[in-house]
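quick one before i forget lol
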Amino acid sequence: MIGIRYHLSAMAILIKSARATDSPEDGARVLVERRRPGGVRKEALELRAWLAALAPSDPLRRWFYERPRQWLLFRRRYLAELCSEEAAAALSMLHELAASEPALTLLTSTKEPERSHGAILRDLLQGARKPPSSTGPARAASGGRVRARRPR
């Protein structure tokens, strides 16, 4: 499977392998990898943006490669990584780009685009799941985890 199309109102979000050929329906093409995929020239990708901060860390990527059945745990750990300032800024840029374009294609270097961080980013763009908050006054005051209080 080369690419998967999703619609949110009028916006189409496509997830493709970076090695797949481009098509007119791709819209804005965004690479969400730390490194350029091997064997592909940067000019051939025809990118609107390269948001390396949205790629999973190398340790997380290696961990998931060794444990491909642990998709839900990978998703949780990746969402936690998106709480960094750099990733939050890149995610904001991605939201702005998605709002200004009728179609958006997220390019990854994975063999299974649907089980990659591209699918998680697509879900975030569609509002299906927001990343956990890593900042805020309650969290800072508590020294980390915020717990609900039992009513008396």
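fyi The longest helix spans residues 85-100.
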